[in-house]
UniProtKB/TrEMBL annotation:
InterPro entries: Bacilysin_H2HPP_isomerase, Cupin_2, RmlC-like_jellyroll, RmlC_Cupin_sf. Gene3D superfamilies: Jelly Rolls (2.60.120.10). It comes from the Bacteria. It holds the Pfam family Cupin_2. This is Cupin domain-containing protein. It comes from Bradyrhizobium erythrophlei. Residues 53-112 form the Cupin type-2 domain. Coiled coil: none annotated.
Length: 132
């Protein structure tokens, strides 16, 4: 199951424990470095998708662009985020925006968990190279 979605009386929800994490080896056709990231695609709406992403220390998403906007929120750990020509370190509670068409990337400085909202919702299978 790619998304752990359940429908109850017109409410759509996802239980984290029911969603399997998938190993991702590339983003937008560019290989990850330092290893794979683990992604849990928790829920997808009509216009957005919500992902929980687990990075081991040293794992990074290469600089890339895409046709959707992303908001990234650090739940745990420390990451280095690059957006355009700006670089900054983010810790728990910090958030950044990856605008559509702007070069960006993220690298875990320690084991980290990041949640991302992407809009409009991309085809996750096409966006990520997923290893099964």
């Amino acid at each position: 199951m790619l998304y752990g979605i359940e429908r109850e009386a017109s409410v759509i929800k996802s239980r984290n424990a029911d969603v399997e994490a998938v190993a991702v080896s590339a983003v937008e056709g560019k290989p990850m470095y330092g290893g794979n990231m683990l992604v849990k695609p928790l829920i997808k709406g009509d216009e957005m998708t919500f992902l929980e992403i687990h990075y081991a220390a040293g794992v990074g998403a290469p600089l890339h662009t895409h046709t959707h906007e992303s908001i990234a929120y650090v739940v745990k750990g420390k990451v280095k985020s690059t957006v355009g020509s700006e670089e900054f370190i983010m810790g728990p509670g910090d958030v950044c925006r990856h605008p559509k068409g702007v070069l960006h990337g993220l690298e875990a400085l320690e084991d980290s968990v990041v949640v991302e909202v992407k809009s409009p919702a991309p085809d996750i299978g096409a966006f990520f190279a997923i290893r099964k």
